[in-house]
Amino acid sequence: MNLKINFQSYLIKITTYIIAIIMVLDSNSIYSKSIYSSSLSKIEFIILIVAISTLIILSNNINKNWKNYLLITSILFGYIFIYVLLQRNRIAIFTGITDLGKFILMFSLAYLVYKNSKKPFLMTAYCNVVFIVAIVSLIFWIFGSNLHLLQPTGTFLSKWNELDDYQGVLSYYNLYFETQTLNQTIRNSAIFVEAPMASLTFSMALCLEVLYQNNTKFHIIKVLVLIMAIISTVSSTGYICLLLTMGYLLLTSKSSNIYLLIVKTTIIPIILVVGMILINYFLSQKLNSNSGFSRKRDYINSFIAWINYPFMGTGIDIDGNFLLPSGIKIGKFGYSNSFGRVLGENGIYILSLYLISIINSVYTSINTKDTKRLFLTFILIYLFITTQFVNTYLMLFMFSLIFVWKPNNILNSQVN
């Protein structure tokens, strides 16, 4: 009997780690934007179907009310499917169906496996996978990109979006890639197409680690490594997320230790002030650069698209130069942030789903006095507004989770 339970627990853990790995790879990793991206996405989808089905069958925390699940899922499926069918061509419809399939998978995972789990094991697995990515990237970034003690082993072909051509980037054993520089300094983009994508992943892992993994083994080491990884990306988005996390810890930490109180009341506020000054400097420099101008235009173009097509947006996968009825072209939009992409392409019709998820999570957090959930929701909003990770498994799962999440303390000790 014990052997059966141990095997089941082991299988759940292995399956969960597989899902976490796919979440990381799907978050705009360089592999997902390579010449093999189409095959990789299909393989990931099939593996996820098997993995999530396995978790649903084996999980002790499975929600028994299938009637409610089927009702909610049917409503969501029908609502989104109507939007997909109204798209302008077969390619857009196919893309919409693919994204709908990804959403149903992630919603099912959140609802049927983690709805009542206080600390979803997927968070632990995700943090550990990102921790390994962070360590590997820091080793190559320090000893390769900066000290040049390690040399690139080849090039890797990838592209950021469908309008770009494939470009070769320097690769270290296909485990670390040099994709971006800033003032002749190579930014740590790890296995992602850009440093901001790496910063997004490291920031999300840091947030989950601080909020829900503070009693786990090697917690302090993981936090320090993730902080170093965020700093090495030289991304203002990551820096602000880091400061917000430190601010949260400052406001919520409770300790009678005199030394910790001194740090809390003196050193940490100084670090926060200095950090805000540095971020302000970086932002002012960035906004005056070509990159900053491009980001501003992205937001502006998104709002122009939404104003002209407020209900259903311009349509799925509009990559740029969309022609308005007046004959005026809208510039490219939605390439630097998720909010602009959803607002411009999908309008209030799809954006409302994200807003409902956010409002429900904020209401539940306040009602239950759950500051951790409230802060997690705030970080999701921040990353949604500043970073592009639309329709990734990570984004779809997190927004699904905060919508359905009703932790049950009785299930604390279970592996879910």
TrEMBL record:
Stretches of the chain forming a coiled coil according to its record:
none
Transmembrane domains' residue ranges: 7-25, 45-62, 69-86, 92-114, 121-143, 190-211, 223-251, 257-283, 303-328, 348-366, 378-405
Establish whether keyword Cell inner membrane is in the entry.
no
Q: Does the keyword DNA damage apply?
A: no
Q: Which UniProt keywords apply?
A: Membrane, Transmembrane, Transmembrane helix
* Listed name of the protein: Polymerization and export protein
Q: State the taxonomy lineage.
A: Bacteria, Bacillati, Bacillota, Bacilli, Lactobacillales
